[in-house]
């Protein structure tokens, strides 16, 4: 589990294509300071398992399902990536509950700059729209953010200077893909509620 509070901005050192997968090596001195084989590190919001640690870099394998669902399919040597180690028991939950299981990708549509913050418009896949609510939580490239406004096909988030400086979201341009993970609580509520709603609908139809 993660919190969506990015620890550092790393960069991709190398990529390797594998049958139905890819292997990436990423530099990140903070997240590798105590990393070992089998640990989980979120890369742009995608939970990856550490295969090898060498100096300030770690290697992880990215399976086909992850490549299909996330922007990691386009990651290349030199790209900057958001990095976060798995949450430790007992620490403060600064963001919200993040699984590192990307639900899909969105596209940066526009950016509106202000003096002390920036509003970013992000395209929202129809399959995820029902899980996104105004003032709710969403994870974008592994960053825990609060939704400002939402419609059927897009939502907006407001980025403070720290987020702009320390994460990839300060460098994303219109047209760029970003990874999206909706609030897992919304999915559980929907799953539990559907049978009851169907039962009610059936009773009303009789």
From TrEMBL:
Pathway of action: Cofactor biosynthesis; riboflavin biosynthesis; riboflavin from 2-hydroxy-3-oxobutyl phosphate and 5-amino-6-(D-ribitylamino)uracil: step 2/2
Alphabetically ordered keywords of this record: Repeat, Riboflavin biosynthesis, Transferase
Pfam families in UniProt: Lum_binding
Lumazine-binding repeats: 1-96, 97-193
An example molecular function term from Gene Ontology annotations: riboflavin synthase activity
Domain Lumazine-binding, chain residue ranges per copy: 1-96, 97-193
CDD domains according to UniProt: Riboflavin_synthase_like
Xref: Gene3D superfamilies: 2.40.30.20
InterPro entries tied to this protein: ATP_synth_asu-like_sf, Lumazine-bd, Lumazine-bd_dom, Riboflavin_synthase-like_b-brl
Reaction(s) the record says it catalyses: 2 6,7-dimethyl-8-(1-D-ribityl)lumazine + H(+) = 5-amino-6-(D-ribitylamino)uracil + riboflavin
Enzyme Commission number(s) from the entry: 2.5.1.9
Enzyme class: transferase
Function: Catalyzes the dismutation of two molecules of 6,7-dimethyl-8-ribityllumazine, resulting in the formation of riboflavin and 5-amino-6-(D-ribitylamino)uracil.
Protein name: Riboflavin synthase
Organism name: Lentzea indica
Species lineage: Bacteria, Bacillati, Actinomycetota, Actinomycetes, Pseudonocardiales
